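Budget justification aside, the reviewers requested a transparent look at the raw inputs and outputs of the sequence design task funded under Objective 1. We therefore reproduce one unedited record. The lines immediately below are the structure tokens for a 309-residue chain.
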């Protein structure tokens, strides 16, 4: 799946679970609070997602009647079009706010919503995610964020996720907006499960498992390659020592039988590991025994120069 499709898929999954009066009310509250504008005279939200657009319109029309939301589509030159959803009729706004259990007074905050039960909090969080959240395809990385309309809402949302899930998000400024983000895969999985997108959460888990297996395989391959390189370098050094002895007066015949046997095996099997060589000797040697004999061979080769050994 492309990175562009993962977030819309998660939103569509979350939207499919918004059924029943209380869940619809909680979801609508989340969408309204984290939309662009919310007052007694204007409600304004924007989204690139048709599913989110249709859900918001449906929830508002259920509260304030058909046609209460005006939708304007803005093309953006190759990017996804932006849908602006607006209500500017005071009477209809009052009906929508009542349906969402929102009472406006002072600065916009989560406290404007009537207390939401734990059972329906996931629907509230789903509304927030659908209107201002996004999640990166886990194949590209682990990142979920909420672009909150105010600093207060951003801080309150962070506190709620900390209390409800133990998910400690971080906040940054981006172009004048306050962004709450999560980078830990487990936290993202928990949030997606909470908002009613367990399949998307499971997909992140599966990708993480795949990455872990692939990384383990790569580490194992790199380790094997490094071991093979070391083995080849050792074999080349041993062969060079043996050839130096062979070029000297008396050659290998002057070596003790146990050393000559090992030299002959190394020349016959130049790519064989020490573990394999140790089982070819008669009697079989330990790894340290093979290492010790090669050390003796290399020491003899070092003494072999212009003079005979």
């Amino acid at each position: 799946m492309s990175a562009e499709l993962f977030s819309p898929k998660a939103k569509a999954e979350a939207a499919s679970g918004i059924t029943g009066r209380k869940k619809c009310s909680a979801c609508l509250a989340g969408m309204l609070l984290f939309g662009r504008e919310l007052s007694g005279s204007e409600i304004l939200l924007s989204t690139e997602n048709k599913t989110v657009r249709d859900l918001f319109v449906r929830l508002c029309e259920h509260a304030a009647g058909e046609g209460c939301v005006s939708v304007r589509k803005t093309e953006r030159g190759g990017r996804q079009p932006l849908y602006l959803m607006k209500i500017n009729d005071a009477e209809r706004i009052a009906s929508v706010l009542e349906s969402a259990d929102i009472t406006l007074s002072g600065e916009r905050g989560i406290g404007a919503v009537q207390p939401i039960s734990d059972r329906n909090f996931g629907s509230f969080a789903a509304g927030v995610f659908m209107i201002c959240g996004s999640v990166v395809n886990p194949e590209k990385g682990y990142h979920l964020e909420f672009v909150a309309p105010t600093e207060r809402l951003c801080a309150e949302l962070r506190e709620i996720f900390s209390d409800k899930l133990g998910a400690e998000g971080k906040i940054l400024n981006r172009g004048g907006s306050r962004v709450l983000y999560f980078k830990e895969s487990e936290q993202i999985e928990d949030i997606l499960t909470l908002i009613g997108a367990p399949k998307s959460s499971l997909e992140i888990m599966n990708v993480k498992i795949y990455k872990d297996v692939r990384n383990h395989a790569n580490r194992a391959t790199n380790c094997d390659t490094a071991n093979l390189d070391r083995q080849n370098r050792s074999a080349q050094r041993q062969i060079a020592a043996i050839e130096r002895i062979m070029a000297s007066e008396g050659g290998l015949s002057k070596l003790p039988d146990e050393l000559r046997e090992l030299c002959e095996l190394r020349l016959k099997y130049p790519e064989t590991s020490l573990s394999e060589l140790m089982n070819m000797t008669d009697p079989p040697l330990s790894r340290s025994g093979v290492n010790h004999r090669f050390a003796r061979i290399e020491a003899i080769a070092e003494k072999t120069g212009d003079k005979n050994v």
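Strands lie at 37-38, 43-47, 70-76, 79-87, 133-135, 144-148, 170-174, 177-182. The mean pLDDT is 89. Computational costs for records of this kind are itemized in the attached budget.
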